Each structure stands twice: as structure tokens, then as C-alpha cells.
Amino acid sequence: MHAGPRHGRFGSSSLIWLTVAVCALGMGCSTASNGGLGPDTTGAGGTAATATGGASATGSGGSIDPLDAGSNNPTGGTLGADASSGGGGTTGTGGFKGTGGSTVSGAAGMPGGGATTGAGGSGSGAGGTTGAGGKSSGTGGTTGYGGSKASGGSSGTGSGGVTGTGGVTGTGGATGTGGATGTGGGATGGFCPSGAIFCADFEEASGVPLNDPVGMATFEDPNEPGATFGGAAAVMDLDASGGAFDGNQSLRIDPSSGVSVRTLVVAVPATFWVRLYIKSDMAIGQPNHNSFFGAGTDPVYSMGNYVELSEQNGCVLLNKNGMLYPTGTTCGINGALSANSWHCMTAEFDGTTGNVHVFSGATQIINAAAWTPAAEAFNSFSFGYFAYNPNGATVWYDDVVISAGPLSCP
């Protein structure tokens, strides 16, 4: 039988034979025999692909649909074979990559391990250990033992007690009272009181007293040019012959054959006290006027106003340029002092009030209160021998003290 075209189309018998031929050739037999089941096969591929791959195979399988329409176009079979491209659906196997998605899910699960962060909470718990720091503060409380130092204060009190022992040293000061004995005994060095203006015991090797122990004096003899203190032309000198009142030496004024004023002069304030030891080889209280010591307004007696302790009329009295105190020619308690004996004498000269008080030992022999001739601005004290009427007497002095405060004989 001739199988030709009918009206340009294949008949149903022709289609059957074509199908047999294709099967014989082994090309997509299963697909052809299934006819409408072809898409299922492809659908199986979709199952493998789980989703995306199946969709791709189904699309390709769909291109076979014209064959179901009964197309007589032989090339349409080729299109059926193209359905084998449904094998491309196998590419859907790439859907296995979806498994990779499972991996992603697994990774997502990993953050669950982040729960380990909870362990961080434990770290905070460890922070609680800081509470132990509170114990350290408690230890600081131990500093309270510093209060024990208050006991140290008690020690201070004890030390104060020791100072009390020092007070015993004050008792030692009583030894100073013993020093007063020096004043009475006239011991060397003990005769000079604290605060004295001038003290001289004449124990120097030579020369006039110079800060030995206190103050300085100058030698004055204006009427005898060339006269000196010590040396070949000496009219006054240190005497070590053994006749001193205290110590080894005293001051000696040699006798004069003419008028002379041989003195040592010390600077003084307007009011002062003097104490000295004096001796003469003649009684101090001769008939004629001579003087022994006095207060004046100039170091040179002839240039100043002097109130002198003098001898006259057989008495001891004051003489200021011929003005006498006491007045008269009769002596009382102010009679002459014995020769060749040491006499302690004290005197106060107050140039402000004119008071002059003189003692021999403890006896006051002159009391010139507010005596006008004695109101002078004194600045000098002179002692030696004013020989206005020379009589050949030798005079000695020892332990002379001048002070701004009261002095007395022992």
C-alpha cells in the first residue's frame, strides 16, 4: 500500500507506522510508547530536582505537545526527540545544590552554639568576687590600730616627767648662791657682778686695765708731762710686792713732790655706783686738801666739773671746787680712815638728783641728798691721787667695780 499524504496530512495509520519505525530504531521508545506519559518521565526528573530542575524539564517536555496534535510534519518527530532534551531536565539534578541550602540551615544552627555567651554571664558572676575587695576594706579597718598611737601620747607624758628631773638641775642653780660667797670673800673673779660697767683686779702682766675682766680705763696725768703708767717714768703701776687685797697684784700710785693728779679714768653714765678697796700709808683724812676719787664731766679733771671724795680738816668729805659737804671743820662719823689698812668703800653719784651717798664698809659716812653742786651730767669716773697738797703718801687700789646698779661692801 502506498502511504501518501492526504490533503497534506498524515492519517492515523500513518502515525502508527511511524511510531513503530521509531521504536525499531531504539530512539525514545519509552517516551513514544507513553505518549502522554512523557511528561511524567520528565516529572520524575522534577522529583529529583525537588523544584527548580523539574520546572526546567517540564518546560522542554511541553514542546512535544504539537506531536500530540497529530502533526504530519516529520520534523515534528525530531521535535519529539528534542523532548529527550527533557534529559536536560536531568540538569535539575543541580537541584542537589539545594542540599547546599541544607548546609546553610546547618550553619544557621551554629549560632545556637552562641548560647555559650551564657558563659559570659558566668564571667559576671566571677565579677562578684570583687566582693572580696570589700574584705580588703575590712582590712583597712585594721588601721584603727593607729589609735594605739594614743598610747604613745602617754609616753610623751612620761617624757615630761623626765623634764621634771631637769628641774633638779635648777636646784643646782642654788650653787650660784655660793657665788655670792665670792663677793663676800673677795675671791679673784668673784668680785665682778653681772652687768658691771667696769671691773679691775689689776692682775694683768702690764699696762692699764683692758677688759680684764670687764671694761677699760685710760691713764691721765695732765700736770706731769712725760709721766707714764709703768716703765722707767712710771708714776702709777701694778704692784706685786705682796700687799694686794686680793690676788697677787694691786694698783699703786707713787708719792708726788709737787701738785699732780694721777688717775685712771672710766666712762660712766650720769648715775652710777662704785665699789673699791683703798689703802694709804698715811691716814685718809689729813688736814690739807687732797682727793682720791670722784665723778666729773670730762676725763681731764681741769676741764670738767668734779665732785671729789677728799680729805680735809682731818675728815673725809665731798669737795666741789671748794664747796664742801658736810660743812664745818668738825668731823663726825666721817672721821679719818686708818693708815696701812684696806678699806672697802662704796659710793653713789646721781647727777640727776644731786644725791651722793658714801659708805665705809657697811657704815654710811656721807649722806648728801639733793646736794645742788652734785647735780651734773657726769660722764667720767676718776680714781688715783689728786695731790693738791703733796704730803708724800702712797695710795693703793684693788678690786674696783663700777655699775649702773647698787653695790655694797660685804
Strand content: 15-25%
Number of helices: 10
Shape: globular
Which fold does the CATH topology of the largest domain refer to? Jelly Rolls
Order of helices and strands: HHHHHHHHHHEEEEEEEEEEEEEEEEE
Give the N-terminus to C-terminus distance in angstroms.
196 Å
Largest sheet: 10 strands, mixed
User: Overall mean pLDDT score?
Assistant: 68
Radius of gyration: 75 Å
Please state the structural category. Answer: alpha+beta
Residue windows where pLDDT falls under 50 for at least 5 positions: 1-188
- Helix fraction by DSSP (H/I, runs of at least 4): 25-40%
CATH class of the largest domain equals Mainly Beta
The strand count comes to 17
Number of domains: 2
Q: Architecture of the largest domain, according to CATH?
A: Sandwich
Question: Could you please describe the fold and organization of this structure?
Answer:
By secondary structure, the protein is α+β, with helices and mostly antiparallel strands. It is 31% helix and 24% strand. The longest helix has 37 residues, at 149-185.
Per-chain topology:
Elements: H1 12-25, H2 29-34, H3 38-49, H4 52-62, H5 65-68, H6 74-82, H7 97-109, H8 117-127, H9 131-141, H10 149-185, E1 198-200, E2 213-214, E3 218-220, E4 228-229, E5 234-239, E6 250-253, E7 260-267, E8 271-280, E9 290-296, E10 306-312, E11 315-320, E12 323-325, E13 343-350, E14 355-360, E15 363-368, E16 380-387, E17 395-403
Parallel strand pairs: 4-5
Antiparallel strand pairs: 1-2, 1-17, 3-7, 5-6, 6-17, 7-16, 8-13, 8-17, 9-10, 9-16, 10-11, 11-12, 13-14, 14-15
Helix pairs in contact: 3-4
